[in-house]
Amino acid sequence: MQVVFLGTGGYHPNERRHTACVMLPEVGVIFDAGTSFFRVPDRLQTEDVQIFLSHAHLDHVIGLTYFLAPMMSGQVRSAKVYGAESTLDAVRNHLFSEPLFPVMPDYEFLPLTAPVELPQGGTLTYRGLQHPGGCLGFRADWPDGSLAYITDTASDPTLREFVSGVDLLIHECYFPDKQAEWAACTGHSHTTPVAELAAAAGVGQLILVHLDPRNTADDPIGLEQARRIFPKTILGKDGLVWEST
Question: Which among 29, 32, 88, 137 could bridge 60 via Cys, Cβ 3.0 to 4.6 Å?
């Protein structure tokens, strides 16, 4: 299983990171469609894609407007967009309102009401997260591997069962511990609780994403603190490729 990190920042792009998008090119599965979504066409290995939206905030959906050319040119045969009904309504009625973007790509919008079948025998499940306006976390399981994608959420130890034992936990870490109060009031996570979740859930690897774009340091969240709790932690960066062993 190959996982490509196209966008690992939050809120807005900066010189180091675009906003949220994680892709599994071998199976055509994509999580979120932030500003980094323009990178998807060069990495496509399938003609059909499944796009799972965590929520409707612009840093997670704006890239859907970038897919018009790949779809009209035939590079993409079908694109199914999954999300909460409220998320899909916001995309259809606002992101693709005529004054903003007058040509709707030929997306098939599918509200999440049950687990979703994925290519190669996979299954996707989901659950709600703690974030203003609502958000969904996703888990994908295949016979030979698993991952969880958890973004835009306050630190939540109740996620332990949902992400338990996954090979790869992709989790937001917008703030370092010293800004824990900001994390709590904005519905985001900070370093220590995320690492504690990974350790408690027995995951194989933790990759931290959705980093604060205002902080352009090499280590904006205190990576060594995370590694003291869960040694197999790395910072996500645009272009990172992770492969299961």
Answer: 32
Q: Is 28 left (phi over 0), alpha (psi -120 to 50) or beta?
A: left
Task: Give the model confidence (pLDDT) of 24-40 as tens digits.
Answer: 999 999 999 999 999 99
Q: What is the pLDDT of residues 184-200, one digit of tens each?
A: 889 999 999 999 999 99
- The 3-state DSSP class for residue 111 equals strand
- Helices marked H in the chain — which ranges? 58-61, 68-72, 85-90, 160-163, 180-186, 191-201, 223-229
Give 183's pLDDT tier (boundaries 50, 70, 90).
confident
Task: Specify whether the CB–CB gap between 15 and 33 falls below 8 A.
Answer: no
**Total-model pTM:** 0.97
Rounded to an integer, what distance in angstroms lies between the CA atom of residue 80 and that of residue 49? Answer: 6
Judge whether 243 lies within some domain: no
If one counts the domains in the chain, the total is: 1
At residue 60, what are phi and psi to the nearest 5 degrees?
-120, -10
* CATH for 210: 3.60.15.10
Alpha carbon 34 to chain centroid distance? 9
Which one, of 14, 15, 29, lies nearest residue 170 by Cα?
29
What's the average model confidence in pLDDT over 95-103? Answer: 95
Domain of 161 in residue numbering reads as 2-238
> Is 244 inside a domain boundary?
no
How much is the pLDDT for 1?
Answer: 85
Sign of CA dihedral 46, 119, 208, 34: positive
Q: Dig out the tokens for 228 from the structure.
A: 């003291």
In whole angstroms, how far apart are CA 231 and each of 57, 81, 86, 169, 198? 32, 35, 38, 13, 10
